[in-house]
Write a structure and sequence with these properties.
The N terminus is likely disordered. By secondary structure, the chain is an alpha+beta fold. It has a 6-stranded mixed sheet with strand order 1-2-6-7-4-3.
Length: 507
């Protein structure tokens, strides 16, 4: 899941009714053994089996639950914080969202595990999949797929580049209706505090419903934490969530999609009854919507918001009403959202990154260039043992070629720098890892990642523990779309830097 949620937190899910007995998993993902619960098998798209995580796993993944990794706001309305993180198991480096409950929100670990397993049985393309949970001492955590493209609330209420177009709003409404229908059909119709913060966008920009809402915030916790003006009337009477309460909340999401604002249902119903539908419509759509389609959605919202629960539609009615309205089925969601298709984000480093490491992780070639200019040749010390006899005219010519290369490198004349550094290297009397690193960057800046990778590997051959050689390989590998290898190389470089800071040689 990605981005801020206020009262709601980031989320996950799962489907598949074929339960197979949990087999031995690695130590990082241990099945909960106490009640013989069947494990959830891996789902579509490579979603792993639902399992138990150790607290150490999740602590490492979130950089010790760093404030920089928080993706949902905490506070009275959202006491359970959600972090993003990256699993560090070498066979599973996926991004995750980790919901960390307040201390003793679930005092009984078995009860928490049973609830988590209940939600963990769901896998569906309209849900953010629940991957696992953690019970460790007083710690209670849920682990979900990470949704990188923010929440519906962000795109509707806090947009920076463009608002959501009408066809995309219709898609959001349908997809969330389908998610609710799936959960209802599979025997889990209760959803706690459905709102625009619970709708997340995945790497393709497709809307998904957070699975965290299928579970309460605590054993005895309230099911709604939003403003009471948006709360189902029957919940105010008896404090209980029913399937009809979920439909009411879906109606408030429809109002959000139509108006682009968070309007209390009572106000919206007054406008609908007064036939002032156009006044409710989001002015940012600038008339780019079908009045007929909008009328259908408003009427559906009105039915969802009926005071008497029995007068509200069911989830199949939601899908049946919204499906015929879809008018751009072949246009990808990320195009309609106006965002770039999400590429794999850089991994959470296992070791703290230096300025060089940070620049390489960000693929910032300009910053790498500045660092190499400033570092000069201080890292070449000890890589050459020259006798007096080797200081020949040839040596002077070779050093002159390197000097010309350094001037060209400083002045960003990278093609000339490549030629001059090549003259230096071809003589072969003196080897310099820095020259290889500099020529590697020049190749990258000239869009020659293969040559850049070869030079970075040569730098490593000359100086096996030099982190810069590994960093340059990481950048070249990323340019070659070998992202897993690039991530591994980046971590190796950071480890070498850490080792050097503790007394070893390797920067």
């Amino acid at each position: 899941m990605g981005c801020c949620e206020s009262s709601a937190l980031k989320e996950p899910h799962l489907e598949d009714k074929n339960h197979q007995q949990q087999q031995g998993q690695n130590n990082n993902h241990r099945p909960y053994p106490s009640n013989g619960t069947d494990a959830v098998p891996p789902g579509p798209g490579g979603v792993p089996a639902f399992s138990e995580f150790s607290f150490a796993d999740l602590k490492a993944a979130t950089n010790n639950f760093s404030a920089d990794f928080i993706v949902s706001e905490s506070g009275e309305k959202a006491p359970n914080v959600v972090y993003k993180g990256r699993l560090q198991n070498q066979n599973n480096r996926r991004w995750i969202a980790v919901k960390k409950f307040t201390k003793l929100a679930w005092p009984d670990p078995k009860q928490f595990a049973d609830e988590a397993w209940g939600v963990g049985k769901f896998r569906h393309k309209r849900l953010a999949n629940l991957i696992g949970y953690c019970c460790d001492g007083d710690e209670r955590l849920l682990v979900a797929e990470y949704m990188p493209n923010d929440t519906l609330a962000k795109h509707l209420f806090h947009w920076e580049n463009q608002t959501i177009e009408w066809a995309m709003r219709l898609r959001v409404a349908l997809y969330i209706g389908e998610a609710l229908d799936y959960c209802s059909t599979e025997g889990r119709p209760l959803y706690h505090d459905l709102n625009a913060y619970r709708v997340l966008f995945d790497e393709d920009g497709d809307p998904r419903l957070s699975c965290f809402g299928l579970m309460k915030n605590s054993r005895d916790g309230k099911s709604y934490s939003t403003n009471l003006a948006y709360t189902p009337p029957e919940y105010l009477r008896n404090g209980r969530v029913t399937p009809e309460s979920v439909i009411f909340s879906f109606g408030t999401v429809l109002l959000d999609l139509l108006s682009g604002k968070h309007i209390p249902p009572s106000h919206a119903l007054d406008m609908i009854r007064g036939k002032n539908i156009l006044l409710l419509m989001d002015s940012h759509l600038e008339g780019n919507f079908s009045t007929e389609e909008a009328t259908v959605v408003f009427e559906l919202a009105s039915r969802c918001l009926q005071y008497e629960p029995r007068e509200r539609p069911n989830t199949k009615d939601l899908v049946g009403t919204l499906a015929p309205l879809q008018n751009k089925p072949d246009v990808p969601s990320y195009v309609m959202l106006g965002i770039q298709k999400h590429e794999e984000a850089p991994p959470t480093p296992q070791h703290p990154l230096s300025a060089m490491g940070d620049a390489c992780s960000r693929m910032d070639l300009t910053a790498i260039h500045q660092i190499l200019v400033m570092t000069h040749y201080k890292d070449d010390e000890g890589t050459n043992e020259l006798s007096f006899q080797e200081w020949t005219q040839q040596m002077r010519d070779m050093l002159e070629a390197r000097k010309r290369g350094d001037l060209a490198f400083r002045d960003r004349d990278f093609k000339t720098a490549i030629d001059c550094y090549s003259q230096f290297i071809e003589v072969g009397t003196m080897v310099s890892p820095t020259v290889y690193a500099r020529r590697s960057l020049c190749h990258l800046l000239c869009d020659q990642p293969d040559a850049a990778l070869r030079d970075a590997m040569q730098a490593q051959c000359v100086y096996p523990d030099w982190s810069t050689a590994f960093y340059m390989q990481a950048v070249a590998l990323a340019k070659l779309d070998m992202h897993k290898d690039a991530a591994d190389m980046l971590n190796e470089a950071a480890a070498l830097e850490e080792k050097r800071q503790k007394g070893g040689r390797g920067n």
